[in-house]
Sequence to fold (757 residues):
Amino acid sequence: MKKNNKSGLIIKLCSSLLIIIFLYIILLLGAKPDQKPKPDDITYLKSYEEELLDLSYLVLKASAINIIYGLNLERYQVEKLKELSLNFENDIMPVHYINPYSDFNLNEIKSSYIELLDYLYKKKSIPEDLKNKVNQIRIQEAEFIKKGLLGVQMNGYEGNKCLKCHAPPDYFPDGNISEMKTETVSPEKRAEIDKAHVYGIFGKEGTEKLWELKQKVDDILTSGQKYLLKNFRCCLIPPDDLNNPVNIGQAFVSDEWINYFTEVRNASNKTWKEYKQLYIIPLKDYIDASLPGINNLKKKKMIDKAVLVLEESRRLDKVDFELQKKILCLKLKDALSIDELTGEDKREKEERQFISTVYLLFPGNANIYESVLKEIDISEK
Amino acid sequence: MKDKITRRTFFKKCAKLTVGFCVFSNFIFKSHAKEINNPLKKEAMFWTKKNSSTVKCLLCPNSCVLQENDIGRCNSRKNISGKLYSLNYGLPSIIALDYIEKSPLYHYQIEGKAFSIATAGCNLGCRFCQNWKYSQFGPGEVENYELSPKEVVSRAKKNNVKSINFFYTEPTIYYEYMTDIAMLAKKEKMKTICVTAGYINKEPLLELIPYIDAFVIGLKGFDDSFYKNYIGCVSKPITDTIKTLKKNNDKTWLEIVNLIVPGLNDDEASIRKMAKWIYDEIGADVPFHFTRFEPHYKLDNLNPTPISTLKKAHTIAKNEGLNYVYLGNIPGITESNTFCPGCGKTVIERVNFKVIKNDLKSGVCSCGYKIPGHWL
Fold:
């Protein structure tokens, strides 16, 4: 009897030990090495916010360079804008430092934009492979931004500053987001977004200063330049080689789009019917790159409108196509316009002046103005 | 007894024959390349017979004397069996819908855009030509459309345009085509515009005037050595053309354009001389445009015209008393706008050849000053 009790005890002990070991193994496997900080961890959120600002900064910087070179500024204008830029940078705002590394898998996006900026600064012709890379990267960026927006709208994330609209990755929706819809931007919302984006980079003091300077900047510009600025949208790759005068009013009327129309027209009826989806891939890419947050339904509407333009082009004979090609490009541009969704074309006068000032006094612009002055000096010799 | 032909002699003769054949065939192919089998082959106007096989073209001051099968310097007219024919009749190589301001034509308003048309060929050889790929070749050497004058007018109507603009290359050299189109256009109450270097003889010019509503003359410089070295002619026929058009101002509108090429025709003295001549001979109210050179053709080694040079030219011309001086090809600047000489107000604003604001009422400023031109 005693022997039996002893064995039973040993068995119980062994079983307990085994259970403990088993549980320990389970826990060991369950614990993730280098566990990510929790979503409400301050350091983590600050790091995320900084990376969002890096992206915003890079896109705005590229746009600022493109618009400066596109406006055909006169010497006196460059001198005045340079002075305002320098004063602004010295008093309020040093040049932003971009962290090339990323905790959120944004390295490739940032490094591509940094590479692009190098070409834009030096006014060098952008190689085709870089243009293609940037266009693809823009789509990746767009998806990242959309997930952040959806994280707030769908998953109820609440944060401050950038995180008010851009949820951190832990709140990103899972799976395919292409059917998910973000909010349409009203004109009032547009003004709020513009200010928030500027505030993120420039802070309260910088934003207020830019608002103060908007009339001064506006007074430097000609009515023609203001017209060009009114129609200008954030632009990574300028519409033409920076070695030639940039015709920013005619960005869509380009050899690229005309060649695209020619390809579409050259398809036989059978090919067009069977392979239309392949032909419209460039349009989808264009929309994806233009607007982070667009959902499939809106995209489909735009594509449908664009396809009508393509089919109109196919009905024209050689002569009428030659006559209409520029008009077709503009119709295509209208079909693919995101202005209605972003509210950018509905900005009031003061808002437009403010955005122009952001571009023209962007940190680091003093160097761009300096290089424009050098070009003017060389040309006047 | 005949000498035997040596191997050396034989090979020498063969070599000469081969070289001769190459030169001959090159000549034949080259001259044939300029022309094309034109279904609308048209006998030219303004020529005379010198003898049974030789003709002399009287269209422009080049006055080409052409033997049988010779093609004129313009690459567009050929002596076929002792008669002169136009090779490019019905064969435009450029067609487009453009804002009329692109010509540049700022004081002649039309509804909508114009149907621009041009054929291959030119009677000049400007080394800075921006359309050299068409102007310096014959119709057989470029791609063409086939459009009869009737079809041109019909296409214009189909595309809802009410003006036809003979533009891009030199309309003088497709004179017959231009006049036939213009006559039909007039019947349809369309406007017609001719953008030309003005290197044309007086008689054909006078016959053309009734069919053209507005001329834009390219006064390329004011120095005969510039004309000789970079264009291949003298300036007098062009200044004569301008004077003739001025005399016929009641029938046709006139504007003048000068392309400033850095280092060649951009010196202040010559621009001043030109502006003064325009003021004295043509008057203060003729719109005068300076446009910016972009590197092309035989001068692609030069830089584009600096904006400062264009602005200096603008100032010089205004100081010489010209009321309407414009700068083109430069988006965003104020010198593409029209200012009222009466009150100084900006009455028309333009960006990229597009009118973005027009404060004139039938060509009259709010101060009462009438701006010369043709206004809607």
